[in-house]
Each structure stands twice: as structure tokens, then as C-alpha cells.
Amino acid sequence: MGPVPDMDGVVLAVEHLTMRFGGLTAVGDLSFDVRRGDITALIGPNGAGKTTVFNCITGFYKPTEGRLTLAHADGSRHLLERLPNHAVNRTARVARTFQNIRLFQGMTVLENLLVAQHAPLMRASGLSVLGLLGAGSYRRAEAAAIERAKEWLGRIDLMGRADDPAGDLPYGAQRRLEIARAMCTDPVLLCLDEPAAGLNPRESGELNALLRHIRDAHDTSVLLIEHDMSVVMEISDHVVVLDYGVKIADGTPGEVRADPRVIAAYLGVEDEEVAEVDAEVGLAVTHLEPQA
Amino acid sequence: MAGGLMNTKPPGGSALADVVRDAGLYALVAFGLCVPLISYRTDPGPAGLDLTPRWPLVAGLCAAIFVVRLLQRLVLMRRDARRASAPAQTDETLGLAPDAAIKLSTLALWAFIGLALTLPFVAALASGGLGEARYWIDLGILILTYVMLGWGLNIVVGLAGLLDLGYVAFYAVGAYSYALLATTFGLSFWICLPLAGLFAALWGMLLGFPVLRLRGDYLAIVTLAFGEIIRLVLINWVDVTGGGAGISSIPRATFFGIPFTAGEEGFAARFGLTFDSMHRVVFLYYVILALALITNLVTLRLRRLPIGRAWEALREDEIACRSLGINTTTTKLTAFALGAAFGGVAGSFFAVRQGFISPESFNFLESAIILAIVVLGGMGSQVGVAIAAIAMVGGPEMLRNLGFLKAVFGEGFDPNEYRLLLFGLAMVAMMVWRPRGLISVRVPSVALGKRRAISGAHVSEGHG
Ligand SMILES: Nc1ncnc2c1ncn2[C@@H]1O[C@H](COP(=O)(O)OP(=O)(O)OP(=O)(O)O)[C@@H](O)[C@H]1O
Ligand SMILES: [Mg+2]
User: Fold this and answer.
1) InterPro entries of this UniProt entry (chain B) (predicted)?
2) Both B35 and B184 in a single domain?
3) Which of A102, B168, B256, B347 could bridge to B320 as Cys pair (CB 3.0-4.6 Å)?
């Protein structure tokens, strides 16, 4: 491995990331940076390897080659490809959502947000011993966790449904809840896999507001995969374009939109057609599950 | 199943014909099975085997199956029609809203505890003396042992969603721990009890560590094998375990050091009572009741702690758990170890009550019974497990007391021999009527407002 890169202002540095499945190279020699405080979008046609990049970053896949360095504001560094799956969230503080929503359907909305605060609550419960004895310190920690969950419930407009099973929520609310649940782990980097898929225009607008709030009010940078160009162009500060696992463009939304290779690969059609294609790819595609 | 295809047809004359044809098909299949199995009875006679034809029995069985299937289809049809007209969110078949189910099950839990606390007195009063009530108290002990085992396994299967087919292994580890510690080192029951739990938990972790990365069917198969391995070790490691002959003259339980004997130092003399051998039995009854209630209490409390929520989250979606920083291996391991610990404690109770243990008591059937109790009760429901344990363990005993069964099946009728058949019937009936168990709703561990139950339809059953 080369020298540790200069991470000034960069929260995640992806260097020469390659992921092969047998003979298939899903991601080939991909390098890009996610800057602190930015919303970075990862776009590309179907099967370009975007979800695979996420699975590598969040520890679900071990990359075939490459280095993923995550830097905290205090200067500490974490090599994500070397961390066990759960430690990517717990120690490196990278949170994610899934392309096909993965809520705890049979648990209530509130419980979903409390499970996300497992690590601090577990510590407060003295590995369950203090909690079993009903210690006051644990009860205070739980009350604080519920307060925090309520804050997010207010933010995603689900206060009234806190005690309903997550599986009962409408689709758009489930997407918002999954984002709030990820945020409850207190991440420095939030990875969102197609958060706007299946949302109607109003919900999509709310989502943009939520993402801006996360970027501005929290110490959290956002990396998102999105097919909906209106979302991408409106809220992202930086766009990376993948095609067949290879980066074909990297820059501001304006630059990317003007890039002839991107136009050829992805945007080379009229606006209405883009919308049509988006609707198709955003909704109708089934995906392989990430495997442990 | 043939019926599955026909369910879509609208009810009416042709539907009725369908139902009759379907029931006829079932009777035909039953006939096919009966011909080789039942139609002739073979008895060793003077000149080889004597064949006794039993065609009336075959006809009776086929007719019974025809009628049962007919009734089942008709009732199901009515239920579907009722559901279609009233599409409210109700709890499967009881027709209860989930919240009514919560109320009912809390009530049932308290009724169960109340009944369990007073059973020895009620039984003594009803049968006119402690000695006469022995049968009932023994039955109570047996049922409570299974309630405790069910509650212990419920942590693993019901909460964490890990299918464990070898739970009896931990029961065995607990029983042998007590038997060996007590006979070799002369340790008292009250010291051995926690030790047995600890050993079983240790075994749980030893097994869990390599195994818990498996999921679903694979986990079930490996735990099944583990249960058998423990049993085979117990049979073959003769030097330590006494092999198939088992361990006998295991020291009896004492009242915290005071033995239940007739002498000066005995329990009765110390407390100024007249000696009665039933004191020990009643004492054992309350010991297992306390142990079971502790299991229940710990489970209920843990459910509301982060670890319990993590177990349930694991059952719902393991991948999401990992993305939230939950170490799924240690979380599964704690569920496994805790379940094993309760199994071990129950095992050492079993040893002290029997005074004799052998590997025979720890065969796969025991695992299957305990698992059946959990599944029938409704995975994750404490009350459901208690009710299922009463039905599964007490049921065959009740049948034994029904005089008319003997009149029908002859003097030698022993319902215990039909236990497996009854389990099978109970399982089939449950699959048809309540596929998610007796109590299928889930009570949230925390709520901002009033706790409202979650219908079983949302709750996942885990994938391993
Ligand atoms: N676990 C896996 N095993 C084998 N091949 C895989 C696996 N995961 C992904 N792939 C392959 O890698 C390629 C990239 O898939 P990926 O899901 O990353 O695409 P994507 O950019 O997220 O597409 P979409 O926009 O449809 O979500 C596809 O060809 C896919 O079949
Ligand atoms: Mg994808």
C-alpha cells in the first residue's frame, strides 16, 4: 500500500477499488473522494456497480483490491476494507440504507430507532446486568435514546405513528424511517442507496429537504446513489459517474451534465425519455442481495 | 395440495362438489396408506404368522378422514367468506383485535401464575390429603419443567429466531453436571444449580461459536447433530457417565441444607410438623415453579433491554442489524448461551427430582417436544408457551383418565403410546388453524403512548 493520502477535507477516500465476482468485474479500479460536508452522488446506468461500491464501503463485501480510508474530524483514520462488517458502523461510523428497504417490519417505528442506538444503550445497560437490575443510569440513558428518537420522528414527520409496526407504514415513510434509523447511529458518512426510488414528487421534495438538513445541521457527509436526475442535480455538490464498473466522470453537477461521455452513457436522450428510463430502472429492477 | 387449487373458485353448488371431491381424494390417499399398514394384523402363530384382516378399521379410518376433511374445507370456506366481508385487522383466527389479545394473554399469564402458586393446596383439598394429591403435584412438576424448558428455548427460537433442534443437549449437560458434582464432590444442590447453568451456557457458547454463522436449515441440522453427539458421548464415556446404565442415587434436594428425613435433624422435626414424605415433593414443586418464574421474569426484562431488542431485530433482519453496528455473532451467542443456561438449570432440577438419570431421558424426542411447545405456543409469546406446555404434557395424562377411551380401545389403552400421534395431530391442526401459534401477536418492548400489539402478519420468524 502507498502512503496514507492527505485527507484534508476528505471524509472518504476510495482508491483503486476493484471488486470481482468470479470472472465478472463489477467495479474496476475506481478512485474518488467524498468531501466532508458535501452531498456526493454516485450515478450510473443499471448494473454499473453502484450498490457493489456501497457494499464494499460498508463491509458487506471484502474488495478484491483497493483501499477505502475514512477520516474522522479529529484526524483518526479507519481502513474500512479491514474492519469486520458491524465495526464499519460502530467504530468507523459509516451508516447506510438499502436499495430494497430493510426495516425491522415487525417492530414499531420507535423500536427501529432504538435498535439503531444499540451500542450506547448496551454500554449504559452494563452489558444488560445493570439494566436487569433496573439501574437508574440505564433508565436515564434509555430516556435520552427515546428523546433522540422522538427528535427524528418529528423531523421525518412520523411522530403520530411511533407505536405502529414499521411494516404498516406507506412506502415513502419507510424510506424516511430507514434514513432516520441510519442517522440514529450518529454517522460521519451516510450512504443512501436510491433513497428517492418509488417516491412521488412531493415526497421527493421532502427527501431533498431532509438530506440538506442532514448535511447542514449534522456533522454528517452524504454519499447517495440515485437514478432520479432531478434529485441528483438539485442537491448534490459533487457527482461521480460509473459505467460498467469504471468511473467515466467526476465533478460538479454542471460539469457532469456537460460531459460528452456521460451524455453518451446515461443522459444521451431527451428529458422525457430520461424520466421514463428513470421510472423503469428505479422501480422495476430486482437486485441481488448483499451476502455475508 | 389439491385443495389449494380449488380455493379460488366462487362458493356455490360447484364449490360444494369440489369440496366433496377433495375430501374423497383425501379418503382415497388414506386408503392407499391404510392397505399396507393397517389392513392385516400379523401375530406370531403356531405355523408362522397369522394374518387377521381388519377391513372395518380401515373403512372407519377412511370415513373419518373423509368427514374431517369435509368439515375442515367447509369451515375454512366460511372463514374466508367472513374475512372477505370484514377486512379489519384482526388476529388470525380468534377474530380478536391484537390489543384484545394482549389483554387476554396478560390475564392468562396471571391466571397461570395464580393457579400454579396454589396448586398443591387446591389439589390437597380436592383430593382430601397431601398424599392423595401426589399425582397432581407430580404432574404439576412435570408440566412446569417443560414450561421452563419452553421459556428457555423461546429466547433462542422465539426471540432471536435461531432454530435449535438440539436443546435437549443443554438439559442433559445440566442434569449430568449436577449428578456428577453431587456424587463425586458431594456439592449441595443449591451450589450445583448455578454451576449447572454455567456449564450449560459454556457448552452453548462452545457449540454456538462455530455454528452460528450458519443459517436456517443448516443451523437446525448442526444443532440436531450436536444433541445426538452429547447423547452418544453420555452413552459411550462409561468411566465418567456410567454409560447407558446412567447415574443413580443422586443426592436428594434439601431445604437449604435441612434434609427431608424422618429423623431429629429432618425438615418436619425442625419445623414442628409431623413427618410426611410429601413435604419434599411440595418443596420440589415450588422450586421448579420459582425457577420457571425466574426464567420468565428474566426473559421479560431482557426483552425491554437493548440486548433483547437486538435479538428481535436479528430475527427480523440480520443484514440491517449489521449495518447498524450490531455484532450479530455475539448477539446470537448471548441468546444461545442464555437459553442453554436455563436448559441446564432445568436439567439439574430434573436430576435432583428423579434421583437417577440416564442418556435415554435426553433423546431427540425431548428436543422435539420442547420445540413443539414453543412453536405451538406462538414464537416469542410467554403465555402461549405455558399453555402449549400444559396441553402437550398434561394432555396425554388427561386422556389416561378418561374412562370411556378405555371402553373404546380396550383395557390396555395407554395414551402415552399415542403421544407422537397426538403431537402430529396437534401440529397439523395448528398449521391449519393458527399457523403462527396460539398467541401470534407481538407486544412492543417500548411505546410512547399505550402499548399496542403488532399482528403476527408483520412479525418475521427468523431465518436462522
Ligand atoms: N454478490 C454478487 N455476486 C455476483 N455478481 C454480483 C453480485 N453483486 C452484484 N453483482 C453483479 O455486479 C454488477 C453490478 O451490480 P450492482 O448491483 O452493483 O449494480 P447497480 O449499479 O447498483 O445497479 P442498479 O442501478 O440496478 O441498482 C451486476 O452485473 C451484478 O449482477
Ligand atoms: Mg443498485
Assistant:
1) ABC_transp_permease, LivHM_N, LivM-like
2) no
3) A102
Please tell me whether the interface predicted TM-score (ipTM) of this complex is above 0.90: no
In angstroms, what is the span from residue B252 Cα to ligand 1's centroid? 64
- Same-domain check for residues A201 and A81: yes
Residues B368 and B257 in one domain: yes
pLDDT tens series, chain A, 292 aa: 445 556 678 889 999 999 999 888 889 889 999 998 889 999 988 888 899 999 999 999 999 999 999 988 888 888 988 888 888 888 899 999 999 999 998 899 999 999 999 988 888 777 766 767 766 778 888 889 999 999 999 988 888 888 888 888 898 899 999 999 999 999 999 999 998 888 888 888 888 888 888 888 888 899 999 887 777 888 888 999 888 888 888 888 888 888 788 777 765 554 555 455 555 555 443 344 444 3
Q: Give B 396-455 residues with CB within 8 A of chain A.
A: 442, 444-452, 454-455
- On whether both A83 and A216 belong to a single domain, the answer is yes
How many residues in total does chain B contain?
Answer: 464
Query: What are the distances in angstroms from CA B103 to CA A67, A288, B298?
Result: 55, 42, 21
Task: Tell me the C-alpha distance between A231 and B157, whole Å.
Answer: 43
Looking at residue A220, the DSSP 8-state letter turns out to be: -
Helices (H), B86-188: 98-127, 134-154, 168-185
Is the CB of A49 within 6 Å of ligand 1? yes
Structural domain contains residue B461: no
Q: How far apart are CA B16 and CA B110, in angstroms?
A: 45
